[in-house]
Amino acid sequence: MMPWWLIVLIKSALLLFVVVTAFAYAMLFERKILGWMQLRPGPNRVGPWGLLQPAADAAKLILKEDLTPKTADLLIYKLAPFISLLAAFAAYAIIPFGASGNGVWAIGNVDAGILLLLAITSIGIYGISLGGWASGSKYPLLGSVRSTAQMISYELAMSLSLIGVLVLAGTTSLAGIVQAQQRMWFVVPQIIGFLIYVVTAVAETNRAPFDLVEAETELVAGFHTEYSGLRFGLFFIAEYVNMLTVSCVATLLFLGGWNAPFGLTMIPGVVWFVLKVGLFMFFYMWLRATLPRFRYDRLMAFGWKVLLPVATLNLIATAVAVALKG
Amino acid sequence: MRKRLYNIAGVLQGLWITFRFMFRRHETIEYPSVRKRHAPRFHGLHELRRYADGKERCIGCELCSSICPANAITVIGAENTPDDRRSPGERYAARYEIDELRCIFCGMCEEACPTDAIVLTPHFEMADYRRGAFIYSKDRLLVPVEAGRGEPPDERPGGIPADLGSVAEIKSTVDPERGYDATWRGSILKTERKGLAG
Per residue in B70-114, pLDDT tens? Predict the structure, then answer.
């Protein structure tokens, strides 16, 4: 029997490889989808159907010059991308991808999984805020101020929309929540919670139409204006890995995780999991190709005056329903 | 508030449109491998043409150079000698240079030319790394003898009428009575040509 730390190490290395590959092809997938929706073929020069494009992009980013502004706060400026990336990857330590018998396919099956996941993903915002602040230039600062405000506003509604699921499942363990969905996916009783989660998840990951943190039409590139080369690449990876993370959470909490729909159990659970995550990722890209960016005050108004009250009401209604039933 | 913020039907409509467009044929022409067909009279790189017997059409009159709005054409004419007749006329172009970086491809030279010597071809891929390479001298503009007369614009639909014919014919149309007056020659040829063609 191998020592436990070796098993964790192997699992981590494997997962890191899977997540990085998933990131690379999520990016290619996005560019292809955007291209098709805009009547373009998308990247198709590197390799067949552009399949080697991620490798070309990586080589380009690594070879580019790493610039540092004179006014930057050096230590924090250099550290910020790593904080973002670390938080983004750390989330995968507790995300389960499938189950066989009693075992759960995850590095760690934590009892308070969903709480820990929210805590870890919230750390990623430090990378964005600090990176923008430490750049010592005005557009990154504006971007990071926006991101802080946006995160606080949308994190609340997001957490409230998730609590509805927790009340129904009666557990905070991610694997437990998936098992609780064997009869019915929580997207059905928690449809309002799901819709709120979708909106807030897009806002949390700073994606269009809530990408005010980057907002190239107003803020050049927002918080990562001054970053270049590999450091910019790290932020880029973190953004896509975060997208994958919230897609995983949506799958686990609302779309039944690795439970097969329509009793199609001959297809393994992992495949269903990946399919559902892919579907959610597609929705992300679809939104980006469709909607223009929100105005900042409307974003705030939407978060505080609509999402938060609706999420609260949804939670109360769920709690009352569960109490009456039980 | 309702009207201002959340037009959900509008969002769904937008999503539907982008979804439909995903399955449409894309508009991109993947240029180096797929080429678009040009209009038949596309204005591209110049070409100096020859008569059927291999003589140069250009008579060094410099009308193209005068009309050129971009001052891109330089012509230096020289007299034909009985031993070395380059063109059927009295003079020929000793040097003929076009700076393709100056050229705006308006086609005025083509219109001004009394002998249809200078012609804009549909060829447009002239990119080069050296500036000097864009100054096209006569050896690059002139159609090689073995290539015959070159691709005439005459054959393009709606283009100028068919070829002038052989040198002998042209010679015969010049009125010997009027002689070879330099100021007249261009217009004589032009009128004669029109007579011939039509």
Answer: 989 999 888 888 887 888 888 888 889 998 889 999 988 988 888
Which DSSP category does B81 fall into? B
Angle between helices A269-290 and A191-204 (to 10 degrees): 70
Residue in B3, B13, B22 to test binding to A, most A beta-carbons within 10 Å: B22
Domain ranges of chain A: 64-325
3-state DSSP helix/strand/coil percent for chain B, to nearest 5?
Answer: 35, 15, 50
> A131: which 2 tokens?
């990176």
Q: Does A294 touch chain B (CB under 8 A)?
A: no
Q: Say how far apart CA B194 and CA B184 lie, in whole Å.
A: 16
CB A129, CB A114: distance < 8 Å:
no
* For chain B, domain boundaries: 46-197
Taking only the tens place, the pLDDT of each residue in A125-184 is 888 888 888 888 888 888 888 888 888 888 888 888 888 888 888 888 888 888 888 778
Residue among A38, A290, A298 whose CB faces B14 most closely: A290
What ipTM was reported for this prediction? 0.73
> What number does CATH give the domain B46-197?
3.30.70.3270
Closest partner residue to B26 (CB to CB) among A39, A286, A289 is A39
Nearest to A89 by CA among A178, A17, A173: A17
Residue range A231-258: average pLDDT?
87
Which of A210, A283, A290, A304 should we substitute to test contact with B (largest number of B Cβ atoms within 10 Å)? A290
